[in-house]
Design brief:
This protein is of the alpha+beta class. It has helices at 2-25, 41-45, 58-67, 94-102, 122-136, 144-160, 168-171, 231-238, 300-307, 345-350; strands at residues 69-73, 76-82, 109-114, 117-121, 172-176, 179-181, 188-192, 223-228, 245-250, 253-257, 261-265, 268-272, 275-281, 286-290. It starts with a helix and ends with a helix. The relative contact order is 0.20. One of its GO terms (cellular component) is membrane.
Length: 352
């Protein structure tokens, strides 16, 4: 058993180190986002809006890219490891099956990179039902409004007819930074890297520092763990009328399950067999472009700054990407729909 565990963790470390090495060896330019999906939570946090309508001028979008700020985004590795299932068959004994399983730990292990959030339980169950319906009839799912109504319909069905995630808090174990966490009465857990989830909702609630919890951001090396009590609470959170139950905050998450559960990573769901789910911080942060505030453009003060020479270079002011700001018309207007015109970068990070 000891040699198996050594082989397993060496394999995981080697794969993780190899990925980080190649990421470090290659230059990664900062990435901007065009919000073409349904939720677009990362785009919301970075001020690119809740959805691309097709009516925006492409030149305006490019000007926004030129003026955007470069920010960091934590990335996380979600490692799924299925528990060993040693069952004898007609062609082998229990011992032979055990040895075969021991020699192939990678067959029970997979890893997914997470940027936004992870969920297990009720929210992942709703997400999985939606994806199954869309896969069966993709031609019907052509608009964000229709997609969101389908989410609501599935949620109502879960509320009145199906409670497959009941007593989740009794059926899984949660560890945060090596500490076992006692769970409240919940049917789902959401692990957040962003304070935007489910099309702009914020399960964590206020972004301010409170009690034992520090102020969360998407670049602080911490994850926020939130509990969802039931489907009705899920609907209130998505309607932005309530928040979830704050459970913990930490840099590493471990969930142990003893039965199959629906899970989702960045909105992509699947059924996960019994085993462990570990969320670890990736060695490298992503470089992202965050859209500049509207106050930087479209005002008298901004126009004056654009026409004055730089005090050190005597050249026109340059944007964050090194392109002269005079390339853009200060009155060119908005690009993607944006509800994040707030007074501080801190509140912009929280989005709501």
């Amino acid at each position: 058993m000891l040699s198996f565990r050594r082989k397993f963790f060496v394999r995981i470390f080697f794969n993780f180190f190899t990925e980080c090495y190649y990421d470090a060896a290659c230059f990664s330019p900062p990435c901007g986002i065009v919000p073409l999906g349904t939720g677009n939570d990362l785009a919301r946090v970075l001020r690119w809006g809740g959805g691309y309508t097709g009516e925006e001028n492409p030149m305006d979008i490019l000007k926004d890219v030129i003026e955007a700020d470069t920010v960091k985004l934590d990335r996380w590795a979600v490692v799924f490891h299925e528990e060993e299932r040693n069952q004898p068959t007609s062609s082998g004994t229990q011992t032979e099956m055990s040895e075969q399983t021991m020699n192939n730990p990678e067959d029970q292990t997979s890893m997914i990179i997470m940027n936004n959030y992870f969920g297990i339980g009720i929210d992942a169950d709703v997400c999985l039902k939606f994806h199954n319906k869309r896969d069966a009839n993709p031609e019907k799912f052509q608009s964000r409004l229709f997609n969101k109504t389908q989410y609501a319909k599935i949620g109502l069905q879960k509320m009145f007819f199906e409670r497959t995630c009941k007593d989740l808090w009794k059926r899984i174990e949660l560890e945060v930074d090596g500490r076992t966490i006692e769970l409240p009465n919940i049917e789902g857990i959401v692990v957040l890297n962003l304070l935007s989830w489910g099309s702009g909702a914020n399960p964590w609630g206020t972004s301010k520092e409170e009690g034992n919890f520090s102020k969360p951001t998407h670049y602080d090396g911490l994850l926020e763990v939130v509990g969802i009590s039931d489907v009705s609470r899920l609907g209130l959170i998505q309607s932005k009328l309530a928040a979830g139950i704050r459970i913990a905050q930490g840099g590493s998450i471990r969930i142990t399950t003893h039965e199959e559960w629906p899970v989702q990573v960045d909105g992509e769901p699947h059924i996960q067999p019994p085993g462990t789910i570990t969320i670890l911080k990736s060695a490298l942060k992503a470089q992202m472009l965050k859209k500049a505030k509207k106050s930087r453009r479209g005002g008298t003060a901004t126009t004056i700054c654009l026409t004055q020479p730089h005090p050190e270079t005597s050249d026109p002011l340059s944007g964050p990407l090194g392109v002269p700001s005079t390339l853009g018309d200060p009155h060119h207007g908005k690009t993607t729909p944006d509800n994040t015109a707030v007074d501080s970068d801190e509140e912009g990070d929280a989005f709501l």
